[in-house]
Amino acid sequence: MNASPPQFCATVRTFAQQLSSTRRGARLARLLAVERLTAWEMSPRVIERAEHVVAELAANAALHGRVQGRDFLLALTLDEAAGTLHIAVSDTRGECRPAVPPERGPDDESGRGLLLVDALADRWGTEPRPPSGKTVWAEIDQHGERPEAVSGQSGSQCR
Fold first, then answer.
1. What is the pLDDT, as a whole number, of residue 157?
2. Which residue of 56, 61, 83, 150 pairs with 113 in a disulfide if CB–CB is 3.0 to 4.6 A?
3. How high does pLDDT run on average in the chain?
4. Spatial separation of the C-alpha atoms in residues 72 and 61, rounded to whole Å
5. Rounded to 5 degrees, what are φ and ψ at 90?
6. Is the pTM higher than 0.70?
């Protein structure tokens, strides 16, 4: 009798939800992301990093990417084979491409969100979302330590 070796079946898990482009929608995006990642049994360290990234990207979508009457989209993709969590937040203001701002003063009350994303994500960037929107994405690796080099894409900045 020959027994075949056990095979690992890698899965890709996805979650997507449209949310109102408001502070309440941004807060709900963070809460939904934590709930979903907990259900996927991700490590607390990854969940904590992802929670902050989602909070910042969703807040930016509600504040800088808002178009009256249009929602933003939160999408999470967990690729277990690659060990990568992909976070994407899409809004309808494609002309406002995020960029890490120049040095901020100690009394500045805003402008540090993308610095947090840059520090917490292993990679992040933006891409157009036709016909007139954009997607800001970030990836967090589940395995190993965070690499020193982080890439961010820049473009015109909207405030």
1. 43
2. 56
3. 83
4. 7
5. -115, 135
6. yes
Question: E strand or H helix at 84, and its extent?
Answer: strand 84-91
Nearest by Cα to 108 from 159, 155, 48: 159
The first and second tokens of residue 52, run together, are: 């902050």
Copy the structure tokens of residue 50: 């992802």
Angle of helix 44-63 relative to helix 113-120, nearest 10 degrees, comes to 150
What would the DSSP string read from start to end of 100-139?
A: --SPPPTT--S--HHHHHHHH-SEEEEEEETTTEEEEEEE
Would you say how long the chain is, in residues?
A: 159
Phi, psi (deg, nearest 5) at residue 63? -90, -55
- Dig out the tokens for 98 from the structure: 């995020």
State the Cα–Cα distance between residues 98 and 32, nearest whole angstrom: 23
